[in-house]
């Protein structure tokens, strides 16, 4: 697949998400770099067809050497998540279109671990929605939220693409809050949710409900209604949690 050409607003959105989500690496440089990049790709920070930032910029952002970064990118290629092309117009482009939704995932969270992940998500994502609706958003941020919601709606017929677009919207909401710690928390919550949702069957009715929730949520944020945005996000999280508890609890 040839890398997509992004228009300026989309480029701005990608830059803003990656700036918020990618952090200087700690611990084992290679493994942590790979984890951050793979998680960013799975959650739609870098979507299918998009190019990763240039090596020098990405290495500086992650606080690793370019050798370590190249090793991590090579591992991403081995995992089928990116492809690298050489030459003047080359670069590394994402080739991950969403999860494969296996029939069984034996190591998925259950019991107390499941409840912990669901409770954590409900608190941090509702807080992010409240804070986003409390802020004075720029025109670019408002357009970004509308575009992210529209993409999640357009992809509703494709479960794998919808999972990525869904995560991307939730991360966009968190990123408008101006809190790196909150973005990190929502990233963790979305990573756990991604793991859980890939372990259950896709329920089209649940996706329809989720799509409706997203529209109401973004409208509440753009209208500057923090309490309404918080309640919608709590109900949104509760609906997904009910499905997960029914199938995994």
Describe this structure in words.
There is one protein chain. This protein is mainly alpha-helical and 249 residues long. The protein folds into 2 domains: 87 residues, Arc Repressor Mutant, subunit A; 138 residues, Four Helix Bundle (Hemerythrin (Met), subunit A) (Up-down Bundle). It has 10 helices and 2 strands. A hairpin with a 5-residue loop joins strand 1 and strand 2. A two-stranded antiparallel ribbon has the order 1-2. Helix 5 packs parallel to helix 9.
Short structural summary:
The protein is mostly helical and 249 residues long. The protein contains ten helices and two strands, in the order H-H-H-H-E-E-H-H-H-H-H-H. The protein is globular, with a radius of gyration of 18 Å.
Secondary-structure blueprint of this entry?
Blueprint: H1 8-21, H2 29-42, H3 55-62, H4 66-78, E1 82-85, E2 91-94, H5 111-134, H6 139-154, H7 159-175, H8 180-197, H9 204-222, H10 226-248
Antiparallel strand pairs: 1-2
Helix pairs in contact: 1-6, 1-7, 2-4, 3-4, 5-7, 5-8, 5-9, 5-10, 6-7, 6-9, 7-8, 9-10
Summary keywords:
mainly alpha, Arc Repressor Mutant, subunit A, Four Helix Bundle (Hemerythrin (Met), subunit A), 2 domains, 10 helices
Q: Cα-atom Rg, whole angstroms?
A: 18 Å
- Briefly note the structural class of the backbone: mainly alpha
Number of strands: 2
Shape: globular
Helix content: 55-70%
If classified by CATH, what would the architecture of the largest domain be? Up-down Bundle
Provide the CATH top-level class of the largest domain.
Answer: Mainly Alpha
CATH superfamily of the largest domain: GntR ligand-binding domain-like
């Amino acid at each position: 697949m040839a890398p997509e050409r992004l228009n300026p607003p989309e480029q701005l959105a990608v830059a803003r998400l990656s700036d918020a989500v990618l952090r200087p690496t700690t611990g084992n440089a290679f493994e942590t770099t790979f984890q951050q990049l793979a998680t960013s790709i799975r959650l739609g920070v870098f979507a299918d067809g998009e190019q990763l930032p240039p090596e020098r910029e990405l290495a500086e952002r992650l606080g690793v050497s370019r050798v370590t970064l190249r090793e991590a990118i090579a591992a991403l290629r081995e995992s089928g998540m990116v492809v690298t092309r050489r030459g003047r117009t080359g670069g590394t482009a994402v080739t991950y279109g969403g999860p494969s939704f296996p029939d069984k995932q034996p190591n998925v969270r259950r019991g107390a671990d499941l409840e912990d992940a669901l409770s954590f998500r409900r608190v941090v994502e509702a807080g992010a929605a409240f804070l986003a609706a409390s802020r004075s958003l720029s025109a670019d941020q408002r357009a970004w939220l509308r575009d992210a919601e529209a993409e999640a709606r357009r992809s509703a017929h494709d479960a794998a693409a919808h999972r990525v677009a869904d995560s991307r919207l939730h991360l966009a909401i968190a990123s408008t809050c101006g809190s790196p710690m909150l973005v990190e928390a929502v990233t963790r919550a979305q990573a756990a949710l991604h793991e859980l949702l890939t372990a259950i069957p896709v329920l089209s009715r649940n996706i329809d409900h989720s799509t409706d929730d997203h529209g109401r949520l973004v409208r509440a944020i753009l209208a500057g209604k923090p309490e309404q945005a918080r309640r919608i996000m709590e109900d949104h999280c509760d609906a997904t949690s009910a499905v997960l508890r029914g199938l995994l609890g």
